[in-house]
Structures are given as C-alpha cells and as structure tokens.
Amino acid sequence: MQYVFILGSHPKLSMAEIKSVLPAAKIVKETGTFLIVEHQEIPAQEFLNRLGGSIKIGKVISDKIDKEKILNILKDQKQDRKLNFGFSYYESKKDNLGMEIKTTLKADGISCRLVTGRDKALSSVIVTKNRVVEFLVLANHWLALTEAVQEFEAYGHRDYGRPVRDMLSGSLPPKLAQIMINLAGLPTGVRILDPFCGSGTILQEGSLLGYQMIGSDLSPKAVADSKQNLAWAVDKLGINKNYQISHLDVHDLSKTISQVEGIVTEPYLGPPLRGYESKREIEKIVEGLSELYLSSFREFKKILDAKGRIVIVFPAWRLGQEIIELPILEKIKKLGFTQINKDKLVYSREGQKVWRQIYVFGLVL
C-alpha cells in the first residue's frame, strides 16, 4: 500500500521525522513538497496526529491521473449534503480537471461544489472547514485521496491556550517539539528527559505521545511555568500525571536522575539579539554556549541508556552571508557520542536572528 505525506514548511525535517517513525517503509518518491512510501496499512488520522512536520496524509489510488476513478469515488460518497470536492497540485501544473469532473457530476444529477483556493494546493483549513473530498495530483503522475489533514486548531490550543508562554527566552513550537521527540525513534512508554524544560513544551508533547517525561531547569521561573502548563495539560488535554519536574542544574543531573532512554531538549540559545551585533560579540556568545553544551554532554553520558538517543537544538547565527555555528561536534564525538542525522536539519522562521539546528546523537557502542 502506498501513502503520500504532504510535507510542512521544513521538508528535510519532515522527511527525517517520517523515516524515523516508519523505519521499515520503502521510499517510492521524495520531493521538496511530498514523500511517497510503501507500507502496510496505517490509521491515517491517528498517525498524522503524531507527526509535527506533515500537513496531510493521502492514499495513492493510481499511478496516473485517472478521471474515471475520481468520478467513481465521488459517486460513491453519501449524498446527505452537497458534495464538496477539490484538487491540490504538488509538483504539478494546475489544470481544468476539477471543472470537467464537476460538469460530469452535475450532468448525472449529483449536487456538488468544486472547492478552490488561491494556491495550487488547498490548505488544511479549507479542507477541514468545507469537508472536502480532496484529490492530490503529485508530479503530474500519481493520484492520491486525502485520508487525514493536520488538526490546526488543536495545535493552536496547545500553543496559545497554555497559561504561560515565555517569549523572552524563545518559545519552542509544539510541532517542532513533536518532530524532535519523533526523531529520537524511541518506543512509546520509555523515559525521556528535558534538562532545559523552559515552559514545558517538550514535556507536554512527549506526554501526549505516551512517554514518561522528566523535566528540569536551573530557572525557578521555568520550573514554575512548566508545572503550571503541565497541570493545564492534564486538565485540558488529558495527559497522564506520570511526569516529573525538578529545579536542577544540568551539571548535577546524575546526582538526582537515574538512567533515561532519551534526552530531547532545547538548551539556552544565548541572549536576545538586537540585530546589529558584531562578529566578535557573536563569537563571545559562541564561546560561552560551547562550554555549556560540552559540559551538558559530559553529564548526559552518565545517565543515557547505552542504546538511548539525544535530540538537541544547537543555535546558529547568520551574519551577512556567513553562518556561525558552535564548533563542538568533534569534541562531542570525542566524548563518546556519534552523530545519527546525516542531513543538516534546520528550523527557522523569517526574520529570526538565531536559527535552530537539530542534531541526533547516540552513544558509541
């Protein structure tokens, strides 16, 4: 069975997440906007709810653009209301197929509406709110039927509905937290630590995915924020209470926390930037953060399970045409870690002064 995943705004991250969650899937086609895989049947909406980086899942129904198949599927729909259908084009040229289908359906006495948008592809909002039967035209070759779309309102609620959001230190989006947890590739139910838990986004998303989450932070405010947000998540999102949150310096982890299977975290990324820092100012930030990260990894080694995984954000700064990164990868490897991710995984938003680079590490066995 073939499925197509429509990728989000950071396609490399989205593809890495899917491959981590579906390691046995056979890759059929990957582009900058979609990934087709061959895999046994999956519960599409339940599976999509687990993924932070994909916006739709469709089942491939033909390796050509088959008008008769489209008509048959639409005619089989229940007619308790007007039939809303639409087409989204990915790596494909938009054509008049929708109008041709509409004309044929109306000639057959079927009340229908062709739903369109400004772009070649319909958004999740349009598909959801209009209850659209959506066909995906992929690279002018494959035809798929949408089975699940991202629950955008749920993400908004989990992000903006929380009691506390700390924008000063930077707010990790729930989707990115989900992606990072999935990149660890760990079985549900194991223990995952976030030693820089901030306002608790990773703890929240990990709990929703069924992990035992442990959070800690040096900042008393961060600990209080996390506790408040997780209590809200228990009440509003239905997460279990099987989490722990402690006021703890990252350098003291091994004194308090026993072995964990995963560490997923976004450490301190440096002070807020004004936008006109000199290269020397950025280099001073790099020096301080390099020591924080290296000392953290020394402590991580003491508590990480032999087959465990670390998924961590490294900051990167763009200064003109130059990208300044933490020069510590080789030093981390000398501590006994191996870098799992092969592609450079970057998460950034327009106008951001500091980019997030996501790395996956394991221990050298």
Task: Describe the structure in your own words.
This protein is an alpha/beta fold and 365 residues long. Helix content is 34%, strand content 29%. It has twelve helices and 17 strands. The strands form two sheets. Strands 9, 10, 11, 12, 13, 14, 15, 16 and 17 form a nine-stranded mixed beta sheet that branches. An eight-stranded mixed beta sheet has the order 2-3-1-4-8-7-5-6. Helix 3 packs across helix 4 and helix 7 packs across helix 8.
SSE topology:
Blueprint (H helix, E strand, L loop, with lengths): L1 E6 L3 H11 L4 E5 L3 E5 L5 H7 L3 E9 L4 H9 L7 E8 L6 H11 L4 E3 L9 H6 L3 E6 L3 E8 L2 H9 L13 H10 L7 E4 L6 H8 L3 E6 L2 H17 L6 E5 L5 H4 L3 E6 L13 H25 E16 L2 E4 L3 H6 L2 E3 L5 E3 L6 E10 L2
Parallel strand pairs: 5-6, 5-7, 9-10, 9-12, 10-11, 12-13
Antiparallel strand pairs: 1-3, 1-4, 2-3, 4-8, 7-8, 13-14, 13-17, 15-17, 16-17
Q: In a few lines, what is going on in this structure?
A:
The chain is α/β, with parallel strands linked by helices and 365 residues long.
